[in-house]
């Protein structure tokens, strides 16, 4: 499971749109994914079996599947084996999940979940973490890739603005013996280049590419 899933210095595009977004649904997300692939994305991150299935049928790059069970409440990113299995069945060839040490909804351990995904689904696992400690914990639990996805979204803090947590990427890359994925609030080319300078293997960009509603809102708020 330790072979790199994505090429070094690659960009993965996250194609996600919640129910409040006019682009919500597998059709729009598959089009977003095709556009991202045409632009050179090395993979697509997508949420839920319906979107993962549509995107897997539409692109030839790897689909990094997640299965959110809520919108930012406790451990909500692919918290259980069943949620992971559903997105792999839909076509995901790598699964991302919450890799923090916070209590999981089924009371299970991260190490057991990662082992079960490896054994029964045969796909690599990316752990979404919020701190260096969580990254160490997730890697020790068997995660194949570790990403900074959850920095700023848990009680453990984060950079405190709408920029990426480059310090966390640097700390993770300096210590962990696996590819580190920079994810969360990457908006610009400079952000992406800084992540690779900090040691990232891959950068996942979501909102800045695939959420015109949020991009527009950010611009509108800036000129208020
Ligand atoms: C914290 C959380 O649930 N993050 C989610 C994880 O899949 C998505 O909502 C983000 O859009 C994704 O991580 C990409 O980040 P950004 O959209 O900032 O480029």
TrEMBL record:
Keyword Disulfide bond attached: no
EC primary class: isomerase
Record pathway: Amino-sugar metabolism; N-acetylneuraminate degradation; D-fructose 6-phosphate from N-acetylneuraminate: step 3/5
EC id: 5.1.3.9
Lineage top rank: taxon: Bacteria
Keyword Phosphoprotein: no
GO CC annotation: cytosol
Name of a matching Pfam family: NanE
Keywords assigned: Carbohydrate metabolism, Isomerase
Molecular functions per Gene Ontology: N-acylglucosamine-6-phosphate 2-epimerase activity
GO biological process terms, semicolon-separated: N-acetylmannosamine catabolic process; N-acetylneuraminate catabolic process
Known catalytic reactions: an N-acyl-D-glucosamine 6-phosphate = an N-acyl-D-mannosamine 6-phosphate
Record SUPFAM superfamilies: Ribulose-phoshate binding barrel
Family: Belongs to the NanE family.
Biological function: Converts N-acetylmannosamine-6-phosphate (ManNAc-6-P) to N-acetylglucosamine-6-phosphate (GlcNAc-6-P).
The protein's name: N-acylglucosamine-6-phosphate 2-epimerase
